[in-house]
Amino acid sequence: MRGKTARDLTEAEVRDIAVGYLSRREYGIKELRRKLLQRGADSDISDKVVSDLADADLVSDQRFTEMYVRTRIRHLFGPLKIRGELRSRGIADYLIAEVIPSEEETWFDAATQWASKRCQGELDYTARAKLHRSLMNRGFTHEQANVALNSIISSD
To answer: What is the pTM of this model?
Structure first.
């Protein structure tokens, strides 16, 4: 199948490729379509296959978003980074807002956990600034980073 061009891939073959992708992990609808196009599938066939799979509930933006958010929170990433990554994968803003936890406590805890893993000994001004930047790069807000750093300092 690797040597075939876009005109050579039948709808059944494109469906098999898509199901193969979905058997390994969840995908968003736009992300799955993009993968099929990269694989050499025709645009119209890709649209039809992805639409059929969505109708059969084999591919779901809702399910993908829920799984993705859970995984990224478990890996201690902040809401800004998670939101940006989901947008880049073609997930709609309303769905992102629906799935991302709105409780600040979730994000304060995640930021504190991540910062405490990186904190060695006393935090001077330079180390605190570096840790704060790292938290911001992981997608935490300025407030979340400050709460995490203050929590670490007060526990020492």
So the answer is: 0.85
